[in-house]
Amino acid sequence: MRHLLSAEGLDLAAATAVLDTADSLKQALLGREVRKLPTLRGRTVVTMFYENSTRTRVSFEVAGKWMSADVVNVSASGSSVGKGESLRDTALTLSAVGADCVIVRHPASGAAHRLAGWLDGTGTCVVNAGDGTHEHPTQALLDAATLRDRLGELAGRRVAIVGDVLHSRVARSNVHLLTTLGAEVVLVAPPTLLPVGVDTWPVTVSHHLDAELPSLDAVMLLRVQAERMHGGFFPSAKEYSLAYGLNQARLRLLPEHAVVLHPGPMLRGMEIASAVADSPRAAITDQVRNGVHVRMAVLYHLLAGEEAVA
């Protein structure tokens, strides 16, 4: 298959190959006045986003352009989707006009897999840029790349994922990828924000952030996804912050080498204090930078490499 649909579908060799390629591409661009590589010249990459996005959409566009691909952006509001066209017909239209790769974000879990099924045999590959509450594989890859930059190899490292795990595709993809890379993952959240069946995941579950902080190599804060919540999942934003927000006092409980991550957008003052987000311990801007190189690597493996990523 020539698609990247989930982090769960990446084995150790494939994940490491993408991360190593991202490192090589980063080095290849260092010192260049014009950040352009000819690798994907003549290829057409289409981004098709049915949900709002800043980091993912822009970094995919920059990644494609830095590799000399032609990048076309399609928004649901400005396309025939607004006239009632189905996802299937939109995908087949994009393939028919010559898209070599379709990067899709969709509010329905499984949408990217359906798209890939419809496009198998057409020569168009699909990248999942986030589907509902299911997965966001390139976010997990860029998080892993950032942790490798700061910590070295991830085998044996202990990483906490904190907050709204229930609604987070980022959490699911990171659990799959980090455990594949040999890290130990602990989920820290109130019981109401943990999914059913979490006891079958290869993770440790905790409800007490302070108790976990001293033994961590990295802590990843998740955005509280109020737009996906129907009902009360915690008493108030203030109480959530008191129990699960990373403030300066909690930052001091972390080992000196520990890294702070957040996939963005951040709810400053709730999930993370501004002083923590802007501190040298935080690698949040590095995540965004690495996102471009990781997405370049994904496009390389799908469109220029000898083998598909997944």
SSE diagram, text form:
Blueprint: H1 12-29, E1 44-49, H2 55-66, E2 70-75, H3 87-96, E3 101-106, H4 111-119, E4 125-131, H5 137-151, E5 158-162, H6 169-180, E6 184-188, E7 204-206, H7 209-212, E8 218-221, H8 237-244, H9 248-251, E9 259-261, H10 274-277, H11 284-303
Parallel strand pairs: 1-2, 1-3, 3-4, 5-6, 5-8, 6-7, 8-9
Helix pairs in contact: 1-5, 1-11, 2-11, 3-4, 5-6, 5-11
Name its key features.
single chain; 310 residues; alpha/beta; Rossmann fold; 2 domains; five-stranded parallel beta sheet; four-stranded parallel beta sheet; 11 helices; 37% helix; 15% strand
Model description:
By secondary structure, the protein is an alpha/beta fold. It has two domains: 12-135 and 288-303, 3-Layer(aba) Sandwich (Rossmann fold), CATH 3.40.50.1370; 137-287, Aspartate/ornithine carbamoyltransferase (Rossmann fold), CATH 3.40.50.1370. It has helices at residues 12-29, 55-66, 87-96, 111-119, 137-151, 169-180, 209-212, 237-244, 248-251, 274-277, 284-303; strands at 44-49, 70-75, 101-106, 125-131, 158-162, 184-188, 204-206, 218-221, 259-261. The strands form two sheets. It has a five-stranded parallel β-sheet with strand order 7-6-5-8-9, covered by helices on one side. A four-stranded parallel β-sheet has the order 2-1-3-4, sandwiched between helices. The radius of gyration is 19 Å and the shape is globular. It starts with 11 loop residues before the first helix and ends in a 7-residue tail after the last helix. 47% of the residues are buried.
